Amino acid sequence: MKKIKLSGKEIAVVRAIDFATGTPGSEIFDRTRIEIEELTGIINGLMDVGFVECTPHLENLTEESLLKVTVEVNPGYAHELKAALILHL
After folding, report:
1. What residues pair up with 16 in beta bridges, in sequence order?
2. The dihedral sign for the CA sequence 44, 5, 29, 68
3. Angle at which helices 25-32 and 8-16 pack, to 10 degrees?
């Protein structure tokens, strides 16, 4: 099992995502209060390493598309991400 290290803002974003059903990008934006440009970059980074994915599937999010998609945790990393969040409580 790979140990996941997340930055503070990445932790805030992952905590904002419902692990069971995913969360609309607009809700993540509301919950985290991170500027939309920065939030888009964080989620794109998490998608690049495979920790999260979006529905409908897009390779790269823009600020506009982020507000229209649902962001979901990749089930293959769910346990490791939960463990990473627990370490930062």
Report:
1. none
2. positive
3. 130
Task: At 85, list the tokens.
Answer: 């969040």
C-alpha angle 50-53-54 in degrees, rounded to nearest 5:
160
C-alpha span between 76 and 61 (Å, rounded): 21
- Tokens 């969360």 correspond to 23
Q: What are phi and psi of 74, to 5 degrees?
A: -65, 120
Structure tokens at 81: 């991400």
- Which pLDDT tens digit goes with each residue over 16-51? 999 999 999 999 999 999 999 999 999 999 999 999
CATH of domain 8-87: 1.10.10.10
Amino acid residing at 54: C
Residue type, 34: I
* pLDDT for 72 beyond 60: yes
Q: Has this prediction a pTM greater than 0.90?
A: yes
Output the pLDDT for position 3: 81
